[in-house]
Amino acid sequence: MRISPPALVFSTIVAHVFGLTMPTAGSGQEAQEPPQEGEPRSASLYAVEVEANGPKVSFDGSLDDAAWTTAPVAEDFLQREPNTGEPASEPTEVRILIDGDVLYVGARMYDSRPDSIVAPLTRRDDDAFSDWFYVGFDSNQDGRTAYLFGINPRGVKRDVRLFEDWREDPDWDAVWDAAVAIDSLGWSAELRIPLSQLRLDPKTIEGLEPAWGVDFQRRLARREEIAHWSEIPRRGRPMVSLFKKLHGIEGISPPRRFEIQPYSVGRMTLADVHPNDPFHEADEITGTGGLDLKYGLTPSMTLTATVNPDFGQVEADPSVVNTSGYRTFLPEKRPFFLEDAELFDYRIGNARLFHSRRIGREPQREVNAPDGFVDAPEASNIIGAVKVTGRTNDGWSIGLLNATTRAEHALVADSLGVQHAEPVEPLTNSSVARVIREFAGGNASIGLVSTGTVRKLDEELDFIPRAAFTAGADFRVADADYEFNAAVIGSAVYGSPEALVRLQRAQGRF
Question: Looking at the whole model, is its pTM more than 0.85?
Fold first, then answer.
C-alpha cells in the first residue's frame, strides 16, 4: 500500500515517540554517498583548493585568472520561471575555489545582448528589477537551512538566510565581498565569502558526510526568467532540500568565530533655537558609541552580546504615515537582533508574540512644558543584551535572549527657568526563550516559547504595565504541497487598573 506524504510524516513522528525505527524518505539529514563514476556531471560540483604556491584570484570581477581554470564547471541551468524545466535561455558557468578560510565563487553569465543587461544601482538587500546571480550553501547539511549571497551587474549585494526549507529572512546580513565586470560576452562576478559567515555542521569535520548542499540561481530581468542549477519546481515549497551537492570540502574545519564590532555615531544639528533654551544650541554636535560581540560556543551554537547597540543608525527607517488603527512594524536592522531572528518569530496569523524593535523603543511618556523647554531622549538606551542561538546535532533549535534598557528622563525647564528631570521610560528587562524539536527530516516540528517583560515603575509611569508574561506551543507538519500549523498562546499582564484599561482599549486590540 502506498503511504501519502502527510501519513508518512505522521507515522515517522509516532515511531520516534515510541522508540520504533522506520526509514524516512526525502530527509535532508540522510548520508550522501560521494558521486560514483558515470554520474552526470551536473549532479554535483567539486570545489578546488588553491595551492599555496599556485595562481591566486585577483578579485576584479573577471574570470581570467589561471586559478579558475583548475575548477570544474557547473552549467546546464534549468528555468524555474517562466517555462519550468526548460533549459535557460542564456548559458551560465560557475566555479568554486577554496583558499584557506575563504570561499571564492566565480560566475560567468553569458548574454547574447549585453547592451540589454539590467543593472540598477540600489541600496543593499533591495530586491530590485535587475539581473542577478545567487549562490546558496546548505553548510549545515540538514536540507532545511541555507545562506544565499546575491550580486547584480552593478555590484549591489543581497544576502538572505533560508530556513524551514523555503522561508526567507532577508534581514540577515553577512560580512562578504564581491566584484563584477560587464563585457562583450555578458557579465561576470567573483564572490569572496569567509567561512566564518557560514554555520558548519560538525559532521563535516568528522568526515561522515563530506558534502554541502549548493545551488546557483540566475535572474534575467528583461525576460522575467529565473533559472537554477538545481531543479527547483515553480510550485511547491521545497527548495533547500533539492540543492545539489558540493564536494571537495572534506578538509574544511569551522574557523573560530570571534567578532568584535565597535561603532560610533556623530551627529551635527543646525536649527533655529530660542535664545532662552538651556538644552539646545544652534549648531549642536553630539556623539555616542557601542559594541557588538559574537562568539562561536560550538560550530552550530553562537553567543551574541551587545552594549548600547546602534539603534536606527545601521540603516535609516523609511518614512511612514499611518492613519489606521494598526501598529507599524518597522524592520529590524541592528546586527545583534538579526542573528537567528527567525527562531523568535512566533506568530499566530498576523499576531506576533515578540517584536525586537520594542527593545530600545521611543519613550512612552511625553512631557510638555508650556512656555518652557524640554530635552527628551529619542530612544531608550540598551545597557546590555546577550543572546544564545543555534542547533544541536539531534535536531533541537535553541534561542535565548535577555536585554535591559535603562530608565530614561527628560530634562524640563519651566517658564521661570527652573530645571528638573521627569521620568519618561522605566528600567526594563526583556527576555525570550524558544526551543524547537524537528522530526521526520525537518518535515515536522514541535516548539515552545516564553517571553517576559518586567519594569521598575515610578509613580509618573504607572500608566504602563508593570510586568507581562506569555507562554505558547506550536506544531507544524508539511510535505511538498501542503503545510498544517497549530499554535496556542497564554498571557498574563500585571499593573495598575489604569494601565490594564489603557492596554485593553488600545486601537491595536479593536
Answer: no
